[in-house]
């Protein structure tokens, strides 16, 4: 049985003018990324960098464009009435109306914490464990993005994951980079795409079961996944925070592919040559900057779900 939901009245009340403006701004922000993807998809075209957040992750462009206020925020005005029919929304009770100062007769809705937790308790619990555990571990900055190289190790035997992209150093040169470096990827969802010959070379053998123990804040993929945790937590996370996580993931993906073995010069991306000392230094500098940004977002996500996490603790 789900734990009881917090019973406190909404601590923030947004009038129709304010929250509709925020919803429009959110939709416009999402459209900058989503519209080009949808256009390519309709034309049957691919982009090796910009498609990733829409194909690897499961949130659809239309879902990304939908703004939510988060927990404990009441939306008022005639437009709020529509959200009564949205999943996990409910009207304010009479008691909540009085406490929040909402005038009688004005439509007002809020996240239905009880209904949300009835279906999403395990999601809240798991995301809380991942977010807090990752934040508490020391960051590691010595991977140099070799997970992407391990995914195409011995490509002449196993094939190339992105078959339409050439390898910058060729198959033999790529294999040498893998063999001449220490590979210690901590992220299961990167490790699971290694070629069979590359997997034993990784000093760790991550599994889904050990994910909660291995995630660390220097990992590019762990920081991209802040977007995944944000959308998996659904309407409990404010739309602005969801988009902040999305935009960080977008920039991390660009850097991740620049440091990959693929030649993306035809797509306008200059390589980060991690096989050289200069390239390694460039990679670590960017990795540290992303980790600092991600730490702030991770804390904001943790704070956003605190009322729900307390209910399932």
Provide an overview of this structure.
The chain is 52% helix and 4% strand. Helix 12 (239-258) runs antiparallel to helix 13. A 4-stranded mixed sheet has the order 1-2-4-3. It folds into 2 domains: 12-121, no CATH class; 134-312, no CATH class. The longest helix is centred in the first third of the chain and has 28 residues, at 16-43. The chain has 14 helices and 4 strands. It has helices spanning 16-43, 52-55, 61-64, 94-100, 113-136, 146-150, 155-158, 170-179, 188-191, 211-214, 220-232, 239-258, 277-304, 306-312; strands spanning 12-14, 73-76, 89-91, 108-111. With 313 residues, it is mainly α. The two termini are 13 Å apart.
Question: Which helices and strands, and how do they pair?
Answer:
Layout: E1 12-14, H1 16-43, H2 52-55, H3 61-64, E2 73-76, E3 89-91, H4 94-100, E4 108-111, H5 113-136, H6 146-150, H7 155-158, H8 170-179, H9 188-191, H10 211-214, H11 220-232, H12 239-258, H13 277-304, H14 306-312
Parallel strand pairs: 1-2
Antiparallel strand pairs: 2-4, 3-4
Helix pairs in contact: 5-11, 5-13, 11-12, 11-13, 12-13
Number of domains: 2
The amount of helix comes to 40-55%
* Biggest sheet descriptor: 4 strands, mixed
Distance between the termini: 13 Å
Number of strands: 4
Proportion of strand residues:
under 5%
Oligomer: single chain
Helix-strand category: mainly alpha
Give me the strand/helix succession.
EHHHEEHEHHHHHHHHHH
* Mean of pLDDT: 94
Give the overall shape, derived from the CA principal axes.
Answer: elongated
Low-confidence stretches: 1-8
Strand line-up of the largest beta sheet: 1-2-4-3
Give the radius of gyration.
22 Å
